[in-house]
Design goal:
The protein has helices at about 1-10, 20-55, 100-110, and strands at about 80-85, 115-120. By secondary structure, it is mostly helical. The N and C termini lie far apart (about 90 Å). Bound molecules: FE2/S2 (inorganic) cluster (FES). The site of FE2/S2 (inorganic) cluster (FES) has 13 residues, from helix 3.
Length: about 120
Amino acid sequence: MDFVSNIVSRSLSSDASGRDWACAASLGVAALGISYFIVAKVSEFGFLCAKKKSKGNWVNPEIRKEDSKVVDSCDIEDIGEKKVFCRCWRSALFPYCDGTHNKHNLETGDNVGPLIVGRKKSN
Ligand code: FES
């Protein structure tokens, strides 16, 4: 550390040579680089921790986790009178509701329920 403080004090004095200023500038750039690297790594670590923590809070706990996105489609002609679609992500019949949302709501205090799609009743 004496080496660094010696260069800095010599650079800041009025009789500093160009070589001293260049050395001090190099040290400053190196210090900025190291600081940037440390901040970037600490931020990345925090991001990774947040990502791991959120895993337990996933909306979808287990349905088709091997897929990057769970997408289902249903033709309107196949709906019949009505279909009940799961929105709690806990149904064994997903994408259809099997009533598991009631158990989930009791256990967690949540208030999720299905989406019911039906045909308008004709007059
Ligand atoms: S089981 Fe998921 S909404 Fe009913």
